[in-house]
Amino acid sequence: MRNVRMRWMGGLVAVVAGALLPGATPAAAQTVRGVLHAEVKHLDPHWTTANITQQHSYMIYETLFSLDSKGVPRPQMVDTYRVSPDKLTHTFTLRNGLKWHDGKPVRAADAVASIKRWAVKDAAGQKLIARTASLEVVDDKTFVLKLKEPYGLVLRALAKEYSYVPFILPERHAIQNPANAFEGEKIGSGPFVFSEKDWVPGVKTVYLRNKDYVPRSEPPDYYAGGRHAKVERVEWIVIPDPSTAVAALQKGEVDFLQSPHIDQWPILKKDPNVTMRKVDVQQMQIHPNHLVPPFDNIKARQALVHMVDQRDYLRAIAGDQENWTVCWAYLGCGQWLETDAGAEPYRQPDLAKARQLLQDAGYKGEKIVVMAPSDIATINAASLTTAALLRKIGVNVDLQVMDWGTLTSRRPIKDPPSKNPAGWHIFHTTSNGVALSDPWGHANISTRCAEAWFGWPCSPRATKALDDLGNTAPGSPEFKKLLVEYHSALMENIPYVPVGEFNSNSAWRKDRLEYTSTAPYVLFWNMTRK
Amino acid sequence: MLTYVVRRILAVFPVMGVVVLFVFVLIRIAPGDPAAIIAGDYASPQAIETIRVALGLDQPLHVQLRVYVTNVLRGDLGRSLHSKLPVRTLIAQRLEPTVALTLSTLALAVTLAVPLGILAAWKAGTWVDRAVMVFAVAGFSIPVFWLGFLMIYGFAVTLDVLPVQGYVSYREDVGAFARHLVLPTLTLGLVYMALLTRITRASMLEVLGADYIRTAQAKGQGSRRILFGHALKNASVPIVTTIGVGLTLLISGVVITESVFALPGLGRLTVDAVLQRDYSIIQGVTLLSSAVYVLVNLVVDLCYLLLDPRIRY
Fold first, then answer.
1. What is the pLDDT of residues A65-109, one digit of tens each?
2. DSSP state, B164?
3. ipTM of the complex
4. Which of A399, A395, A396, A397 is nearest to A380 (CA)?
5. A–B interface: beta-carbon pairs under 8 A
6. Chain A within 8 Å of B86 (Cβ-Cβ)?
């Protein structure tokens, strides 16, 4: 009996001692641990537009072309690319050394099947395929795209870096129905290998260095150039609470925070071991339902714009002025398509004019439903600001608080709230800078009436200007003229109200990581562990 | 007795049948669309509809229910709508941290709270009693998330003696396993200790005022024998009930602690599934929780037999 008791005591002492002794140094000095903005749940890049899935895909897959820091598409998987003099035949040859993670070579058939699968879902892909006469494999390394008419955005579409990214999958995965996630091992040809056995959704995602990967020889530039995997292992840890994530970074349990909460920025700025840098912006948007009164009337949408003082919104969303920028450019300030043509009448808020326009639109005090997602702090702050301003101009506001999941299930409803209790008048959302710089592929800004995004804006003028812009050489005088025309058409129709831009920052341990990328997604290639 | 046990175990099945039906219907009539969440914010309405059809969510409710019930009867809880992994695998991945945290919290609370409650009752009206009650009220009043952050700031960031977050399985490293459980256990344990201390004190006070205790004292029996031989056994029925209810509450209600300390447990799995409208996971976890609830209640009922010979089933 005494021996049994002694054994129990010994075990207890061992556990207590284990608890008090410091933890073993992580064996992987070549491991980088990051906390990303969300958890990886979907592994098929052609199934969802979720940013986290696209970031996961950048780890293991590649694209035929990648954008550089000037927004120019550069070859990534492609070695040579030729265009016929009539600009209708595009010939692509894959570079040497491309291998799938199971050791088999990447073939032109993989690329062709992947482009076809991607184009079913993606707006830019749909436009490309609509202009395509044929897309055929020539040999193991070469394929040819023949167009019905010249199209200036072929390479830009193939280098698209957000939403549905045209990642190249093995043919056996790419031929599966894009309506569902593909079945089979998740193998790509990129610089990291997905460790499926270590994947615990909601907890951890693990990538290992692809020892067989042959990087391009060009220096890295944004998404383009050589992708050198310089660490053996990358772990994406899920820490749901922002304060805990910051404490974990300060203590060195993680090395990288992709999106620390804005309330934590002052703490991170003071920490001598931490670097924090702006990596992207978010544009906050007020989306009215164009199908239901009063916002089916252009005057009511103009009233919304006159009501808005962007500074009120941006202070509520992002606090100090150093974190935000007043911006009336639909396509982003500081982006390659920046223009605010047509925005002049709206620069100064005018509540009296907003009230008058609303009356002119026939508004007679009906309830206006504003959906506010309480689980997303930034969008909720904007929703509350809109509700307060609407009340100031005499609107009978029905502020409905819900979670984001409920909001996304209600926003496809086209009926007015008077007919359907789930109907709505206004919701808010954000777009990042990358999306803003691609109006051809960005669903939020579509003005294609019934085919447009939620809110269903309808502007044949803007739609035509955008189509013409896509067929014009970027940078040419004609391009600039069409850009002004497109933006003016947007400001005339007001598909949504842009209420300025606020920063997205990332933070990392500067004593542990060397990281120079300026891309909005965290790129773990070319990242060095000190 | 055996008949009673068998009857109670058999009663699990209709209870779970009702749970399946209720959960299935409730989560589908609640607002929220898994297809819209899966498709992401930049997807077109057409892309969302395509996913809805592919997942079978466009089917009538009774068709979806028939498919689900058939699968459950075969022991198949389905696959996550998002990750496509089997729900059984996802629950198995998350079960260990929750069970470990629940048991460590329970052990801490029972070890400290029951003696504290007995002490408070024995010394009723004195400063000892008042001190224990101050502790119990404080334990009940302090928000769990605030206490958690305080623990992280004090023990992990400032003193640097314990980890901030995460979980390590005991199969990988017993020491790291214990280290990662200390702060969550202290945080969650304080609330549960407060509850158990108050119940123990109240129950003991009631028994200590009974005639047979006065008789025992008149017979000259010692304090220890009166407290542990007579009073505690008779006061233990409500204490055991609270421990049982607490166990089920801990299993299903540790979500705040799991979130603060990034413990990958069932609470977080459930909340994430609700936010993402992952129907299969919500149904699977609810089934598991209801089964645990019914079985824990059965064990508590059986404990009554051992503690109080007057109870018969």
1. 999 988 899 999 999 999 999 999 999 999 999 999 999 999 999
2. S
3. 0.83
4. A399
5. 174
6. no
